[in-house]
Amino acid sequence: MTSSAFRIDAQLHAAKLPAAAHRIFLWATPRSISTALERVMKNAEDLDVLHEPYTNAYYFGSQRRSRRYGDQAAPPEDPFEAGVINDRLRAPLETTPLFIKELAFQGEPYVADDLLQGARNVFLTRDPRKVYASLIRIKPDFTEDEFGFTALERVWNRVQTLKGAAIVIDGEEFRADPDAIAYKLCVWCGVRYSPRMLSWEDGRIRKWASHERQSQAKWHATLEQSRTILPPVEEEEIHIASGHREMVDRAETIYRRLTADRVRPDPR
User: pTM of the full predicted structure?
Assistant: First the structure.
């Protein structure tokens, strides 16, 4: 075990978190390699994984923040109402921890304080310029809320106020050294790690429902065709539209603040 892993253990002990079954939130900005990290965790032994439970509340529920995808009927197994989602997440866990991946902008308006306070909160983000370059190709009319950085900061601030447990990961560093980052993440989360978690035959997270074609399915094509974590690629020059420059500047300030003390991929 490396010094970094020892530091992670110290953070975990200081948070006085339970050693038995527990909840782990992965809070992310869009296009930050978050679903690929979720796919890695899906390969862990003795870990249940839940994908974006608040998406439907944000886009389709009675307290929705956006009408981007129109109106949809809620299937009983996939609720749209935040209160129902929170109650389901509060349900007692028996022996298996629960890993909950969520985009911060979708979950922050709805997640209850007691869930944040009692969970281990992992924050995943990426250079805002790279997030921008990827997001604008798929959702060219995205809002600042959907860009995700202000929402990620709001979740971070809430967890800090509640004195909850939190660590930060950079998505680009995860791509560059997935073994080191996934190992340290598992140590902190209390999950058994194996390098076998980094590869798969089927990249799908789950089968998408008909109402999820726009809100889910189209976002994960690259992952679903993959067999492992794809390494970073050299980016072409990124052009930021003039109307977006102030938004990206705000995001860069948040990014620097949150990643200053992040988990780093140093040698084990």
Answer: 0.84
